[in-house]
Amino acid sequence: MTSTDADGYYSFEIVPGSYLLWTDDRAYFGEFPPHFYPGTTDRSQAEAVELRAAETLTRDVELRSAFSNERASTALDTGDRDSVAQAYRDRFQRHFDLTAPLPTAQEIRDCQAGVGDQAEETATLEALNFVRSLAGLPHVSWDREISAKTRDVALLMQLNDRLSPYPSPPEEWRCWDLEKYGQAHAAIQSRRVGALAVVDGLAARDDPHFNERPDLVVNRDYILDPQLETFGYGSYRNVSALYPGPPVYAYESGRTTVTPRFVNWPAAGWFPTQLTPYDRWSFDAPHMSYNFEQAKVKVTRLGAKPQTFTPQTHVASASHPLVWEMPSVPGVIGSETAEYRVTISNMRYRGRYQPDHTYTVKIFDPRLSITATSRASLDGFPRVGSVLTAKPPAWSVEGTASHYQWYRGSDRIHGATKPSYRLTAGDVGHRMTVEVTGTKLYCFNGESLSQPSARVAKKTATSRLSGKVSGRTVKLSFSVSSDGEPAITGRARLKEGRKTVKKLTVTSGRATAKLTKVKRGNHTYTVSWTGNARVAGTSAAAKVKVK
């Protein structure tokens, strides 16, 4: 608490063990570990004073805190799911498809990187600032001088097809020199570029000591450092490097560092599943007076049946974040969510144990969900040999592509994935449907199922029966055909009235019968073909007169 007395001097109350730093006409209090005090410098006369109790300042100074303990003005409202989702799509997801150029012949010859692709660098910066805004941190900018050196690092890795910051032996590395070696050692390296390179850095899996040091998430620390204002960036076709600029401290810059009291990853509130580390989570305090060496973590997976577990924690040193391994973090899709309540206990601030700190991470899928604003439909007559054509629905997301799957009843038809489908004998008696799936890159698929068709019928056939009389002998000729079908074969029956006169064999769509000693008078004969799997049966009649 601060106030001024009648003479305009500041008085303040602060816990014992706090520090006050004088720099000419300013005093900064509260958040400086002793090793940050510059003492007497060329730039100013600086004096560090440990405050023993409530005191009154006796110098006319501007009193400032090193940290604001609040989220930056550019921070996202992670309590608003829609806002986080929209920002993810606009500022991060749309940069997934960035590409970087291959080195030019001159760059290869001179071992000297040229100018980077401005569009790719701008997009990568937007992605970097998106993840910082999720954590409540202020935006950063590219430092052109640092970026030029960082592109040299990227060129070194591209030409040697390696990410290792430790060239060994160095003389085997093309374009290697001592300066680039040092830059490579500190750079955040990735096999991807743009937003995906930022994802790799946050996951921390490309840290040189990731596997053997479970207490470190060095790359993530750099990306989420509130005291960094600049970075350098360089990339080529399949490698990129991100290089942190120097930290800017309040006593040097005269500015208060705007940062929340705690920086955790994944951040509290609604958090994109695509950025969620599936193994190593971390919790940090930009205020150096915090100590996590004895801190403990309890995580509860919320839901109908909450599950609580206490992971093993790791702290590299008093100034490093608290790190722990999550046993299992499933991805979520579409409308699914996964909520985790995290409680940090036994952390100390200036030697004193602090109350437990609890926050909740709500993991969700921020991709747009495609929905059908109308229903898929079928066009065509359901008969063997006919073609049914699917009409896709209208989709909610512009540019959505339609993909098809045909069904015979409830059975998926293997390979039937085109907009049209020709009906076969196997479809007879079934109702046909088509499922249309709407897809677009980085969107959640939508689906629409058509109304079922009428039951599929066999093809119709045309038949003809003719008779010739010679004395008391009758010769009958039968023919049957169906459009688009090969020559029909099968069995037929020759009847007069209800009596079967003869069984016929149809070959190449034809059959004949010879009847002798036919009684005189009028006769009506009928030939009935039984049909086959594709064509429905048919019959034809003929009248003859035997004299």
Based on CA atoms alone, the radius of gyration comes out at 40 Å
Strand residues, percent: 25-35%
Q: Give the fraction of residues assigned to helices.
A: 10-25%
Main beta sheet, described? 5 strands, mixed
What is the rounded distance between the termini? Answer: 131 Å
Gross morphology: elongated
Strand order of the largest sheet: 13-23-20-16-17
Structural class call reads alpha+beta
Total DSSP helices: 8
Tell how many strands the DSSP assignment holds. 39
Low-confidence stretches: 1-65
**Average pLDDT for all residues:** 83
Set down the secondary structure blueprint.
Layout: E1 2-4, E2 10-12, E3 19-23, E4 26-29, E5 46-50, E6 55-56, E7 62-65, H1 81-91, H2 105-110, H3 118-134, E8 141-142, H4 144-160, H5 178-186, E9 188-190, H6 195-203, H7 218-223, E10 230-236, E11 239-244, H8 250-253, E12 263-265, E13 269-272, E14 280-284, E15 290-291, E16 296-301, E17 307-309, E18 313-314, E19 322-325, E20 337-345, E21 348-349, E22 352-353, E23 357-364, E24 368-369, E25 377-379, E26 387-391, E27 401-408, E28 411-412, E29 420-422, E30 432-439, E31 443-444, E32 446-449, E33 462-470, E34 473-481, E35 490-496, E36 499-506, E37 510-515, E38 521-529, E39 538-546
Parallel strand pairs: 4-7, 8-10, 13-23, 24-31
Antiparallel strand pairs: 1-2, 2-6, 3-4, 3-5, 9-11, 10-11, 12-14, 14-19, 15-21, 16-17, 16-20, 18-19, 20-23, 21-22, 25-26, 26-29, 27-28, 27-30, 30-32, 33-34, 34-37, 35-36, 35-38, 38-39
Helix pairs in contact: 1-3, 4-5
